[in-house]
Amino acid sequence: MKKLLLVGLSTITLIIIGFVSYITLTTKDPLSEKEFPKTREKAKETAIEYFQKEKQLDVVITEVGVTGEMGYKVWIEGHELNNEQKKIRAIIDVAKEDKYKVISSNID
After folding, report:
1. Backbone torsion region of residue 57, taken as left when φ is above 0, otherwise alpha when ψ lies between -120 and 50, otherwise beta
2. 61, exposed or middle or buried, with CB in 10 Å at 0-12, 13-18, 19+?
3. Transmembrane ranges (predicted)?
4. How far lies 71's CA from each of 37, 68, 79, 87, in Å?
5. For residue 77, how many other CB atoms are within 10 A of its CB?
6. Which of 10, 15, 26, 66 places its Cα 20 to 30 Å from the Cα of 58?
7. What are the residue ranges spanned by the domains of the chain?
8. Which DSSP string do the residues of 32-60 spell out, in sequence order?
9. What is the mean pLDDT of each run of 10 residues along the chain (108 residues)?
10. pLDDT tens readout for residues 37-61
């Protein structure tokens, strides 16, 4: 009986370890050193499209960085095309590889 219980618990433990390993190894971290260059470019594209469609504004993105908050978010800064005095800022959620989303924006 004890042997059967030990085998059962060992099997469950191995299944859990396997599942966690699979999730860890197959999930990309968009903020990792390896992935961030791609994340940066896609965040720029997302911000440019957002400001064109939602704010009717052509913009130039000058900086992109990690917010430091929980979750996968990056900040962008830039300005209106041909008007460096009109500054723009946005926070972009990059958690879903195929669906980056502007969650906050500001125009000065």
Report:
1. beta
2. buried
3. 6-25
4. 18, 9, 26, 26
5. 15
6. 66
7. 36-107
8. STTTHHHHHHHHHHHHHHHHHHHH---EE
9. 87 92 78 89 97 96 91 95 96 91 95
10. 999 999 999 999 999 999 999 999 9
